[in-house]
TrEMBL record:
Listed name of the protein: Tpd52 like 2b isoform X9
Region Disordered, annotated ranges: 1-45, 156-184
A GO CC term attached to the entry: cytoplasm
Record family assignment: Belongs to the TPD52 family.
Polar residues bias (residue ranges): 1-14, 172-184
Coiled-coil segments: none
Keyword field: Coiled coil
Pfam families linked to this entry: TPD52 (PF04201)
Keyword GTP-binding: no
């Protein structure tokens, strides 16, 4: 079966078959099946003219489908010879699509708005950090903090004990050396 003569209309009852294979099978809505009752005000001659024109248009559609199918096959063959796989085409389409998005006015406006928002947020955090640092500095210099610091220092001295000249405390092992009398 010649694939160039295949009916590629996915809604067609002849889908995937040669156009001549089912020529005698009635198709819903086809010219031959049209009811012979005429719309009011239409003569038999006008109806016959319209049927003839419809037949010609349907034949043109079939011819155009065949031409389109042949062109698609030729395009596929040329792409194959050029090394353009469907994956490469997809990549190119995505790249072009992304470039189109980036050049769109909506993208530019959104990018500009987000950039401004980021700058304002950064400035706000910087200001907030400066204010917190200043408040912590003020708090450390306050009499309440100094009193608290003194009490914690005193408690540390009571718990740890005084150290003279930065001497390290000895670990319990160093103060009581263990004799190595192990049998192994």
């Amino acid at each position: 079966m010649d694939t160039a003569n295949q009916d590629i209309n996915l809604n067609s009852p002849n889908k995937g078959l040669g156009t001549n294979d089912l020529s005698d099978v009635p198709v819903e809505g086809a010219v031959g099946n049209a009811e012979r009752t005429l719309p009011p005000g239409m003569t038999e001659e006008e109806a016959e003219e319209l049927r003839t024109e419809l037949t010609k248009v349907e034949e043109e559609i079939v011819t155009l489908r065949q031409v389109l199918s042949a062109k698609e096959k030729h395009s596929t063959e040329l792409k194959r010879k050029l090394g353009l796989s469907p994956l490469v085409e997809l990549k190119q389409n995505l790249t072009k699509g992304w470039q189109d998005v980036q050049t769109s006015n909506a993208y530019k406006k959104t990018q500009e708005t987000l950039s401004q928002a980021g700058q304002k947020t950064s400035a706000a955090f910087s200001t907030m950090g400066t204010a917190i640092s200043r408040k912590l500095g003020d708090m450390r210099n306050s009499t309440t903090f100094k009193s608290f610091e003194d009490k914690v220092g005193n408690m540390k001295t009571k718990v740890v004990g005084p150290r003279a000249n930065g001497e390290e405390l000895q670990s319990p092992e160093e103060t009581n050396p263990v004799q190595d009398n192990a049998p192994f």
